[in-house]
Design goal:
Aminopeptidase, 25% strand, alpha+beta, 6-stranded mixed sheet
Length: 381
């Protein structure tokens, strides 16, 4: 453990240089060319480190990078690979760097996407670099980086699942939980719905009674939808956006809402889905349509995942720090791999705060220890 920690500390300057380069390659999910440029750069770095690189090209989303690192003479090339899973896209639009530049200040690295999750990518490449150099890689490792995770992984999910099914375990490079840096052993599943109401337009002053307001009907439905929340079961429903109508003097002919639903247990989703899709109008002059489905299944706390966490906690203790575990309501691509029954441990990236916010930052003093811990988990047979 001391050897790995020393190697991580010796490479911290190089790791931060790599992190700066990744952050300054802005890569918003909705800008394919920008994401692909970041993919190309990362592919070049991985190739220089000896990886066999494959680029999965996508037409309507950022490409997916697959970099396979094979062990040296002391390793077993025939062993099942370990999957390091992450993404290169961010939520930040092009031009964000102008007002939110990458910087090292107050013991932190700052910038758009620095925590979520370009630091995790830099950590993985740094760890693989010194493990390869020291001939400490015991088995093949696949680094898989999506280009559309922040928008639901619609273009990358199939590749992620297919790759994970070849692997022994999955380590997700998303940020650790909170400033205490807990690893994540559970995540909620996420479903998205669109509730659309069609009414009948009418002049609000001349023939009001002939109209059937889509807005009024939708307002009634919102209360029913939000009543599906069950905090004891970890089920939350959020009506996040509402739109509708044309003018204040016109009875609204259309209105719609976007709904976010989250569940802790996969078993709870079918009943929730039926309840939402079986909503009925109160005003028979309106038509109600509900569309949506589960985007990410829950990552449930399984024995296999807990075993990975306990191994990591033991290794962390050997390095002189305590590693906690946590669950979160947010999703990641680890939701997909865990739902397939593959042991998946999440939150193995950087420690910091402010993901998706202007104060997004990484705590520098924790970067080397967490990189060393990731390397130690890769080394474990």
């Amino acid at each position: 453990m001391v050897r790995l920690l020393k190697a991580a500390r010796q490479r911290q300057t190089e790791s931060l240089t790599l992190l700066r380069a990744l952050v300054e390659l802005e890569s918003p999910s909705d800008h394919k060319a920008a994401v692909d440029q970041c993919v190309e750069f990362t592919a070049e770095v991985a190739t220089k480190l000896g990886a066999n690189v494959r680029r999965h090209r996508r037409r309507d989303a950022g490409d997916i990078l697959e970099a396979r690192f094979d062990p040296g003479n002391s390793g077993k090339r025939s062993s099942k690979p370990l999957l390091l899973l992450g993404h290169l896209d961010t939520v930040w639009p092009l031009g964000t760097l102008a007002g939110m530049p990458f910087k090292i200040e107050k013991g932190r690295a700052w910038g758009p996407g620095v925590l979520d999750m370009k630091a995790g990518v830099a950590m993985a490449l740094t760890a693989l670099d010194f493990l390869k150099e020291e001939d400490l890689l015991p088995r093949p490792v696949i680094l898989l980086l999506a280009g559309d995770e922040e928008t639901g992984s619609h273009a990358s999910r199939a590749i992620t699942e297919k790759t994970a099914q070849r692997c022994e375990a999955v380590y997700v490079l998303e940020p650790a939980q909170g400033l205490e840096g807990a690893y994540k052993t559970a995540r909620k599943g996420i479903a998205n719905y669109r509730v659309h109401v069609t009414g009948v337009a009418a002049h609000s002053g001349v023939n009001f009674e002939q109209g059937h307001s889509a807005i009024t009907e939708l307002a009634r439905q919102v209360g029913v939808i939000e009543s599906c929340t069950n905090l004891e079961r970890g089920i939350t429903i959020n009506v996040g956006t509402i739109q509708g109508g044309t003018r204040s003097n016109v009875v609204a002919a259309e209105a719609w809402a976007e709904v976010d639903a989250r569940v802790v247990r996969a078993a709870d989703f079918p009943a929730l889905d039926r309840r939402l899709k079986n909503l009925r109008v109160r005003d028979r002059g309106c038509v109600l349509k509900v569309e949506g489905s589960l985007n990410r299944p829950p990552m449930e706390r399984t024995r296999a995942t807990v075993a990975l966490y306990r191994r990591a906690a033991t290794l962390a203790a050997g390095m002189g720090f305590e590693l906690q575990e946590a669950s979160t309501g947010g999703g990641s691509d680890g939701n997909f791999t865990s739902a397939l029954g593959i042991p998946t441990l999440d939150g193995m990236g950087a420690v910091g705060e402010g993901a998706h916010a202007r104060n997004e930052s990484v705590v520098l003093k924790k970067l080397a220890p967490r990189t060393a811990l990731l390397a130690a988990m890769i080394c474990e047979p």
